[in-house]
Amino acid sequence: MTYVVTEPCVKCRYTDCAAVCPVEAFHLDDEMLVINPDTCIDCDACVPECPVEAIYPEDKVPAQWQYYTELNAEKAASGLPIISEKIDALC
Questions:
Q1: Domains in the chain, ordered, with CATH?
Q2: Over the stretch 20-43, which tens digit does the pLDDT of each residue have?
Q3: Distance between CA atoms of 8 and 1, rounded to whole angstroms?
Q4: Among 3, 30, 35, which Cα is nearest to 18's?
């Protein structure tokens, strides 16, 4: 199982979660972060660090945000840069 970044991250993009990820599973795009499901080790370290509560286990993503599961995988595989440090948020 993997974790998924969802709607609350869009146009906010806090990176506290990426800074604690032990395997550098987070990727950065212009509006949000995404998690690479092939890299994520399901450690749960990122969840309490997200100030907007945007990260869910794959099997607990709210119904209205289910499409973010595939979106995270697609964006992570698209060549977006990996982020492993905290940078300024967008909001």
A1: 3-77 (3.30.70.20)
A2: 999 999 999 999 999 999 999 999
A3: 21
A4: 35
